[in-house]
Fold each of these.
Amino acid sequence: AVLGQDVVIEVIDNTDRVAKAELIIQAVIAENVPSFVALEVQGSVSDVPDALRVYEEVGDKWGTWLKPVTEMHLAVQQAAFSSTIPTVAQIAPPGMSAGELTKSFEPSKDVNAGVNGCSYEDVADVFLQGLENLEQYNRSMIGIRPKA
């Protein structure tokens, strides 16, 4: 399924996600696909070493689900970033909801650029913009910021 592709994008459910992502990463490596992008949730993962995680700030105020979800995203990030795939990134969308494409956003290396939510359509638009210059996000995250 990945043979001959320029990029493989991992957008899978959370059931056994780390194991599934690792299988996808192995396939990308085996078929010499030059680029791989993983999906995560804004705020759960950071590419800043020793950054405070959201679950560390809020504790169990939002429930007990946040810590294991964060750890899952971190494990996928670690598997991807430590792989031999030449170009790897992780997209970090904010909260998403149904809505219109506004074209009001652009990719950013700052995953905390002040965007707390946007439409699925805007996330897809920013993601496509990020893919156009994927090398600049190598081994880092693609966040979303308002257009300047």
Amino acid sequence: MSSSSKDWRLSKQLGSLLGEEEYVRRRIEQASRSYGRMYSLWLRRQAIPEKIRLRLYNAIVLLYNCETWGPTAAIMNRLDTFHRKQLRALLGIRYPEIISNEDLYERTNSTPLSGIVTRRRLRMTGHVCNTTPLLNWPCQATSQKMHQELEDVLNPLLRQLSRRISP
């Protein structure tokens, strides 16, 4: 594939890059710059309590509009890796010191970003499914039947996925 055929991925539509991977990479870069500006706060571990630093970290808008993303496994892995790296920096954990991912999430009372993105996407799917009867279908009876069929299929799947994702 030539580079010109990939140029559309770098074009912006309403402030967002069209390519999914490029968009998420850009969001990570922006969040990283924001975290960099607050690096002096991360260094003041004795002056600023861990709870406050975590609230500041969570205030950064990395996952804005993630309900509309179509992330691949590689993108989700990149998000989780970035998240863990930032949490470790926030806590002051460096290389010789080792902490497992589970312990890290427990200590910071957080979850992997991939789980948050999945939950938000499922919630958005639920909203879309709930609005289906409001759409202007040619025959209301057909739309109600289709809505019921969608609920019958999606509700068990959504419950199963939410149980898998819930910490």
Amino acid sequence: MTSEDDIMTSEDDIMTSSPYYSSVPVHMAENFSKAQLDEFKEAFALFDAKSAGSVPVNEIGTIVRSLGHNPSKTDVQKIQEELRKDGKNDVEFGDFLGVLAKYFKDMDEDPAAELKQAFKVFDKKGDGTINVNELIHILSTLGEQLTEDEIERMLSEGHIESNGEINYEMFVKLITSE
């Protein structure tokens, strides 16, 4: 019979004993903080069902989303095609880090990019706009909740189209400019 402690030890062993997980190429490690690498290893390990040091390429989108990013289907397909170019159907941790460095690293350093990506989730038509009422709801209920006055001031500077939509890329530029 397996105890809960045994399960935790097994998961910890996966993270630390496998040379694949513990040895990150220096050029990749430079792209990320230790905390980020730990988070990436943990997410990767959850999908490495066989503890083989690799995950199916078709799981990349799910893993990246589990890390808080929201790539579009097109982005995921592009990443999967790139990873499969060598004919492999599995991706190793080093290659996974390469994907994160290439496609997602800048978002952690660029608040405007993070905001655009967040608003993209609510862009139902995929045209770079979001309904102003939905934007008000988002700003007043999610994350750092803004007051009605703060929202009103923000929106007064933004250009709301006659159809009640606002271009969120322009809105992000407006609110992030100094």
Amino acid sequence: YGDDRVCNAAKRCHWDTTAAPGSCQQLPCGRFENETMCALDVECTWSTSETACVARTCHTIPNMCDCQADARCFWSRAGGWSRCEEQVFGKCPTLDMVVLLDGSGSMSQSFGRHPQGFYAMMEMVRDWVRTLPLSGEDHTIGAGSKSS
């Protein structure tokens, strides 16, 4: 697939932005056609909602017991709801993130396959949002906010 929207819409693919220019790559667990084959790889799990083999992440573990049994995960109650999170983020404090983009003329020029630098930056931000364990809190909640 030559387009990120078409690529990301395909069950077994994702648009990889780790190298420029971005390209469509098969998901690691996308090579398995059925639940039986998927179960053979401990890094994969069968998603009944997607009817596809997907990467096993802590977010795919629905209950506290199974979450705590996995050394990569911990059970979190942050943000107002309970869920399984990746251990690598367990010691990180919550924080607000601000992204500043260069407004100079260079950002309106071509960046690799992107017609403008702004498009390239938005592609990277979109990938961060998919990866980061965001709390889901409303911007009015948190340190320094006035909540009723």
